[in-house]
Amino acid sequence: MKFDPRTKLLAIAVLTALAVLAPDIIYLAGGLAFTLTLALMLGVNLWTAIIRLRYFILAAIIIAAVQGLLPGTAFFLRMSIILAASSIAITSGASEMKDALIKLKFPYEIAFMVVTALRFFPLLREELSNRIKAVAARGVDIRKLRLSQKFKAYAYVLSPAVVGCVIKSRALAHAMTARAFRAYNTRTMYRQLKFGLYDYIIFFLLIAYITAFITLYFTIGRFNLI
Q1: Domain of residue 149, residue span
Q2: What angle do CA 193, 195, 201 make, to 5 degrees?
Q3: Which regions of 30-108 does DSSP assign to beta strands (E)?
Q4: Cα(213)–Cα(207) distance, rounded to whole angstroms?
Q5: 219 and 140 in one domain?
Q6: Is residue 11 domain-shared with residue 37, that is, in the same domain?
């Protein structure tokens, strides 16, 4: 099934917004079930998404454990919804997301900067991985260090990794200038986005979800679990 990237952006916005507004565990549990279902429909490979987001998931588990049972469960469910919703974005390419933002009337420069920023996240991860491997090649296993030493080690590898990204960003800026970026006020698009039947099905599901959320919120309110 092929979905319009605007549909995915709308789904991400709705799911994350209602995750923030959800007042207790019942809403969050239902929201997580709906989010996972919608993510599967939109083509997300959940196992691949879990592997990519494993560090964020681990951090959410640690923070949830500190907060206690019920508040921690609510926090973990909320973060799970946000992470699952964000994984929808990886089912489309960066150029598709850029075209979607432009179709939504975002200025081209803003859309380009957003997509470029997203592309730099894996670049930063690669830079960090290379620096950690360089430290390991010198006989230092960061995983076996004490916590205070780990902070120092990661601070040591973070600076050159950020510098490497800055150098590449400058190279990108020079390449954009050489290609006369923003030379014309108007731009044309090779890809023409159109909504299809499956997009309207997602719209219907999102409207039904929003309606159910609002109805429960104003008729029942909180379930008094936390």
Answers
A1: 94-192
A2: 150
A3: none
A4: 10
A5: no
A6: yes
pLDDT at 41: 93
CA 61, CA 50: separation in Å to the nearest integer?
13
Torsion angle, alpha carbons of 22, 23, 28, 34, to 10 = -40
Write the DSSP symbol of residue 42.
T
Asked if 183 and 170 sit in the same domain, the reply is yes
Of 94, 59, 65, 99, whose CA–CA distance to 79 is shortest? Answer: 59
Q: pLDDT by residue (tens digit) across 133-186?
A: 777 777 777 777 776 776 777 777 777 777 777 888 888 888 888 877 777 777
Residues 188 and 205 in one domain: no
Give me the torsion for CA of 60, 66, 71, 75, rounded to 10°.
-10
Q: What pLDDT was estimated at residue 224?
A: 62
Which are the contacts of 77, defined by CB distance < 8 A and separation ≥ 6? 25, 28, 29, 31, 32
Return the axis-axis angle of helices 5-21 and 94-103, rounded to nearest 10°. 80
Q: Work out the average pLDDT over 63-89.
A: 89
Q: How many residues does the chain have?
A: 226
Residues 175, 179: Cα–Cα separation, whole Å: 6
Residue-wise pLDDT tens digits, 191-224: 778 888 999 999 999 999 999 999 998 888 777 6
Q: Which pTM was predicted?
A: 0.74
SS (H, E, C) 77-90: HHHHHHHHHHHHHH
Judge whether 85 and 39 are in contact, CB under 8 Å.
yes
